[in-house]
Q: What sequence folds into this?
């Protein structure tokens, strides 16, 4: 046996969940260094769905639908810690506000969005109306926004609200199918999603309503992340992480782990926190 | 640990044939890393999400992992559709319920196994005035609500002929019309 669970080296990585494991792939530029993909964390009894990263403490956070629970672990080598165990149904998407030191998650059974501080304390329900199948959730701490997607087959939608749950509004609802994956790039201010119903990847600037198609004909996206010009999504049919060049609108690379099973949430673990200040510290 | 220098440094993986394993450094725990397709867990003893069974027979006879069996009353885009060991369905849709999403949930009636979702489970919609204790549930198949005395219809929404005053909430009262002066 080889002890192949090592502290994750410095640099920017992709983190994704697959069948009782959180794996990482180092990034080179905005592409993947596939040959150095490894397991960051074994959680053999869990089904991990959502993955998020805190760039301040270099911690990975996840949702687990089997316990169900929300947990975290230090990527530099640390034991998993359970943060939240009670009053969860099916916790799916998770997002970190590294400036406000809080985490947000969706629960598709309780049909709500909740928030808590990063140690699991100060928990409260943020949104509990008009949610049917909430899944992906993303933060934009610099501007104080929260984005999420609901794959309700009767009325799928992508929504935005302030991080305190106020000023909620629908960003997209037409021509959506199963918007499973969602990502926001603070550099370009682009919100992008991957849809397993329409089989499209689309992007928009949330302030400009300029929705545009990046790619079509993709198979079955689940999670999505971004870095530079690239978009990354996990695919349930291909059991792989797929890279899309968002400028060229085409697939450029694929990583298929040795183990053939579904891949779930994916997140970019930045080497350094994106610059910016807490919107709360301004006023 | 191959660095100790004894013949027993390397031990075979405690995993099904073909699976590799690893030692978690802190806990020294051995976990299988490439379980056969459809299985997972420390010793490949669990089924992947969306499947159920007991692949190593830890709790009785060996049951290979099979896809959740929920009578087409689950959504393939959902996660955690059934219990990984027992197969109990956890996310029934179309207002169905039960271990295999095989019956209508409380307050609904019909045939949970119908092919067309629209024909599956309909709301009981029992009339609050005509139903015993204002119950909201009804009989599974026929949808008959439990009516107060002299109240009729599936949903207990009308009085039997010769009775009136459904709104009383205590059942319908006899009309007591004088047979000589009444038309019928």
A:
């Amino acid at each position: 046996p080889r002890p192949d669970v090592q502290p994750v080296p410095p640099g920017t990585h992709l983190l994704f969940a697959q069948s009782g494991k959180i794996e990482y792939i180092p990034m080179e530029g905005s592409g993947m260094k596939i040959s150095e993909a490894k397991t960051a964390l074994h959680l053999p009894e869990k089904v991990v769905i959502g993955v998020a990263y805190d760039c301040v403490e270099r911690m990975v956070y996840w949702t687990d639908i089997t316990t169900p629970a929300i947990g975290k672990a230090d990527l530099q080598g640390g034991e998993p810690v359970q943060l939240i165990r009670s009053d969860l149904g099916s916790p799916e998407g998770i997002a970190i506000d590294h400036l406000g030191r809080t985490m947000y998650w969706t629960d598709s059974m309780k049909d709500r969005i909740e928030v808590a501080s990063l140690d699991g304390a100060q928990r409260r329900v943020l949104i509990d109306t008009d949610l049917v199948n909430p899944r992906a959730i993303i933060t934009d701490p610099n501007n104080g926004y929260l984005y999420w997607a609901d794959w309700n087959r009767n009325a799928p939608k992508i929504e935005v609200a302030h991080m305190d749950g106020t000023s909620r509004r629908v960003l997209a609802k037409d021509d959506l199918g199963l918007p499973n994956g969602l990502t926001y790039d603070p550099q370009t201010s682009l919100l992008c999603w991957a849809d397993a119903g329409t089989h499209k990847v689309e992007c928009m600037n949330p302030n400009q309503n300029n929705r545009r198609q990046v790619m079509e004909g993709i198979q079955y996206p689940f999670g999505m992340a971004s870095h530079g010009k690239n978009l990354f999504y996990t695919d349930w049919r291909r059991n792989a992480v797929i890279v899309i060049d968002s400028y060229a609108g085409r697939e450029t690379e694929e990583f298929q782990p040795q183990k053939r099973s579904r891949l779930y949430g994916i997140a970019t673990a930045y080497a350094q926190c994106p610059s910016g200040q807490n919107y709360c510290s301004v006023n | 640990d191959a660095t100790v220098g004894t013949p027993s440094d390397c031990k075979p993986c405690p995993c099904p044939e073909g699976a590799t394993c690893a030692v978690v450094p802190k806990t020294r725990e051995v976990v299988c890393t490439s379980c056969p397709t459809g299985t997972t867990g420390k010793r490949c003893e669990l089924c992947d999400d969306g499947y159920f069974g007991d692949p190593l027979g830890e709790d009785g006879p060996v049951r290979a992992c099979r896809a959740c069996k929920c009578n087409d009353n689950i959504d393939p885009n959902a996660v955690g559709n059934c219990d990984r060991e027992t197969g109990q369905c956890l996310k029934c849709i179309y207002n169905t319920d039960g271990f295999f999403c095989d019956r209508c949930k409380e307050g609904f009636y019909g045939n949970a196994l119908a092919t067309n979702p629209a024909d599956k489970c309909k709301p009981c919609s029992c009339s609050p005035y005509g139903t015993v204790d204002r119950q909201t549930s009804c009989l599974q198949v026929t949808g008959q609500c439990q009516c107060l005395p002299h109240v009729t219809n599936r949903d207990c929404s009308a009085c039997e002929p010769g009775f009136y005053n459904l709104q009383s909430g205590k059942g319908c009262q006899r009309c007591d019309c004088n047979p000589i002066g009444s038309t019928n």
Q: What stands out?
A: DSSP finds no helices and 14 strands in chain B. Chain B touches chain A at residues 10-11, 13, 21-27, 30-35, 37-38, 40-42, 46, 48-50, 75, 77-80, 84, 91 (CB under 8 Å). Residues 1-67 of chain B form a domain with the Laminin fold (CATH 2.10.25.10). The mean pLDDT of chain B is 91.
